[in-house]
Amino acid sequence: MAYRRTENVLRRLAARHDAIVDAARAAADTGGMAAIQIAPIAERAGVAAGTVYRYFPGKIELVGALIESVSGREIAELRRAADVAPGPLSALAAAIVTFAARALRSRRLTWAVIAEPVDADTDAVRQSYRKALVAEIEARIRAAIDGGHLPEKTRVLRRRRSWGRCWKDWSARSRPRASTIRRALARRCRR
Length: 191
What we know:
With 191 residues, the chain is mainly alpha-helical. Helix content is 75%, strand content 0%.
């Protein structure tokens, strides 16, 4: 007779998976991508290193799960803030301010998942989050243009890399001021 996983077993496996990803998140939040090492993550999660390897065959898969987790949460928060805004321009502002505020609260994690210098494999995994972030902001810009709130020839849409640099700059600074961020956003949107 074949072994069939019960609902309780599936719940326990999912909880262990989440604990490992949360431990990786905590490690990245304090030490960046360099802190994501299997043995310390296993210890933080309260499991053996072999257990981590059961869920994630290697470090890159663990980083991928971390990026997916962070990306899902952050994009959901951007959308939630933008969706309650009264208009498309307010939605754009809400999305950007939400990202900036959350990035300032977790500077090291933001830097790790967006811009920290890493090997090519890790950077390729992070690319999906950066693309999703840019796509979300671009959609809000496009909605503001379509609503007549921004000029059609807004250069922001043609400057994907400038938005990426913007995110990197904010997350890399040890303590950027909110006023600095507001001025940078205003300059980017006027271009």
